[in-house]
Amino acid sequence: MQGAGLPQEIYAESVERFWSCVSGIARAEGSRFRLLVHDLVQQLQQYARDESFKLDTHGGSRAQNLLLVQAALQMGHHLLDGKGSQRDGAQRLLQTFMSASSDTVPETLATTDSLPYMLVLSLFVLPLNAWRAARLTFLRRAIVYAHLLAKQARSAAAAADAGQWDQTKHVFMLFGLVDLLHSATKDVKDGDGDGWLDAHRTRLLDVDGSLNAQLRDSTLQIVEEELLPCADLAEFVDVCGTSFSFLWS
Question: According to DSSP H, which parts of the chain are helical?
């Protein structure tokens, strides 16, 4: 993780060593940034599914593992804006997903880089104001995506006894968690211009201060005490309207 006192060139060298180690363990198709986003999706899905981290991290509390999000966001921005910048391409990809017509939404949600990937991608490319403007679009995509998952599950014998909410709850938990992360790491005062990204990246350098505490305490508390206990979609929407006072603004 890069703190405010760590020079950019030293951080860049550390990132290169990290990916060299990764390539020595396994090979995967795609850019480093795309792989990082998918890794972050998997991590956040564990919170969304209320799963243990013991198998993957061999220890550490849920609060400590959530702090890895900050490190992933730092590295993602480094990869996006490094040599051969990928930021414009990432923004176009997200915009294409968000602007898809209702006829093509099921098709776009059936790809590898589907709704979970796009939700996490938004953390890297959207300022807070833009995310809030896009939330309803993402929520509509989430409902369609959940319907597709439930339809697939109904054809599987193992899911025959599970209710639709049990099969799809994690979709809405991920949406809620990403929404919380946007607000924890960004500020509406940063605006929509180029300045929002500089302010966001500066905020991510605060590895021991208020951001750390907000991720560890406030964000996790809302997930565990208000999101995960939701018994159906109606309750989830109700929670979003009260606990997330900004969600429907």
Answer: 8-25, 32-48, 54-57, 62-66, 68-80, 87-98, 105-108, 115-125, 128-154, 164-185, 195-204, 210-213, 220-222, 233-242
What does the block give as tokens for 245? 């006072």
pLDDT along the chain (249 residues), means of 10: 79 90 75 93 92 72 84 93 85 91 70 90 95 90 86 60 78 94 90 86 82 84 92 87 50
Q: DSSP letters of 17-59? A: HHHHHHHHH---SS-HHHHHHHHHHHHHHHHHTT--SHHHHSS
- Rounded to whole angstroms, how far apart are CA atoms 176 and 127? 17
Domain chopping of the chain, boundaries:
10-242
Q: Is 17 buried (19+), middle (13-18) or exposed (0-12) by CB count in 10 A?
A: exposed
> Which residue, among 171, 180, 191, 175, has the nearest Cα to 216 in the 3D structure?
180
The HSE-up count of residue 19 (CA atoms within 13 Å, CB side) is: 18
Tokens 């998952």 label which residue? 149
Cα–Cα distance between 80 and 125 in angstroms, integer?
Answer: 9
Distance in angstroms (rounded) separating the CA atoms of residues 208 and 106? 42
